[in-house]
Amino acid sequence: MTKEKMASYLWNLPEQFAAMLQQGIQLSPNYKRKYYNIMVTGLGGSAIGGDILRTYALTRAGIPVTVNRDYDVPAFIDENSLVLAASYSGNTEETLSAYRQARERGASLIAVTSGGKLADIANADGSAVVNIPGGLSPRAATGYLFSPLALILQELDIVDGVSEDLNEVVGVLQDMRREIGTDAPWEGNPARQIARDLKGRLPLIWGSASHTDIAALRWKTQINENAKCPVFCNSFPELNHNEIVGFEIPEEILSYIAIVMLRDPEDHAQVQKRMDISKQIVQDRVARFLEVECRGQGFLAKFYSLAYLGDYVSFYLAEEYGINPTPVAVIDFLKSELNR
């Protein structure tokens, strides 16, 4: 697997959303009933779609959406729950375990997968299966993994306007890739410039609760998997109650930290003040302090504008380190050891 493989994945991300919009979601009338809660269960690249959905639904759904990253499901899952089991491969052992437990509790189940054991079990149970294209790295399939989750809620009349929001995502990302893609000029490419600022440093990504915190998490996980280096993330206002104090010692470590702060004009007014004051406190104590503002109008477009930039930053950071971003040998080794 070459680095060009990941480059093609990134370039073609907007088409994933377009493809899922064209495919659409059709569910049996049995699913169109009242639920008390919705849970997305998954891991890694398959789970972050649940994080996006949870945040997206905060101001749009009348019931809570939670995310489960475990073998076991919470005690509140029962016959009044809708469980969306997301596994790109269909063979994630934690997701298969959670699916079986949710089935035993009587929950309504929908599988989102490209195949594998999850598709087989769900089909045998008579649960709905949303089939998505396979052949990608899960972290590169966020359009295929998130879009069905949101479209399911639209189909069930839990969240409206999803199709329009996803169409905006397509347009924003298509515009962005001309600026940050591998064919864009080096000097005018903000993703390459940020990657150069992060090289040789310890990245710390700051977001804001319910706005850009999941984008910060996406930056973290993409840099972890693509550039193979450590990176940490946190969010306002919580970090102002602890982390902000930790920029005094040891100076030799602080001199390697590069902070990237993700901003949304719709962040709470007090959060925006907190960001400004926090910048004043730490910018002279760390190696780099960078600010990135989202694009677009709707929540999804703004989220994916930040996430897409972070995806390309992680790709270019891998280039800076001379690393192939596509394989994840450590995860492959871990899985092989678990299966022994």
Question: What layout of secondary structure does this protein have?
Answer:
Elements lengths: L2 H9 L1 H11 L13 E5 L6 H10 L7 E4 L12 E7 L5 H12 L3 E6 L2 H10 L2 E4 L10 H14 L6 H19 L9 H9 L3 E7 L4 H15 L4 E5 L14 H4 L2 E7 L5 H14 L5 E6 L5 H23 L7 H10 L2
Parallel strand pairs: 1-2, 1-3, 3-4, 4-5, 6-7, 6-8, 8-9
Helix pairs in contact: 1-12, 2-6, 2-7, 3-6, 7-12, 8-12, 9-12
Structural account:
47% of the residues lie in helices and 15% in strands. The protein has 13 helices and nine strands. The strands form two sheets. A five-stranded parallel beta sheet has the order 2-1-3-4-5, sandwiched between helices. It has a four-stranded parallel beta sheet with strand order 7-6-8-9. Strand 1, helix 3 (48-57) and strand 2 form a beta-alpha-beta unit. Helix 3 (48-57) runs parallel beside helix 6 and helix 8 packs across helix 12 (299-321). The model has no long low-confidence stretch (mean pLDDT 97).
The SSE order reads HHEHEEHEHEHHHEHEHEHEHH
Termini separation (Å)? 25 Å
Biggest sheet statistics: 5 strands, parallel
State the helical fraction: 40-55%
Round the Cα radius of gyration to an integer and report it. Answer: 20 Å
How would you sum up the global shape? globular
Counted beta strands: 9
Low-confidence stretches: none
The largest beta-sheet arranges its strands as 2-1-3-4-5
Strand-pairing-aware structural class: alpha/beta
Tally the helices: what do you get? 13
Q: What's the mean pLDDT score?
A: 97
Percent in strands: 15-25%
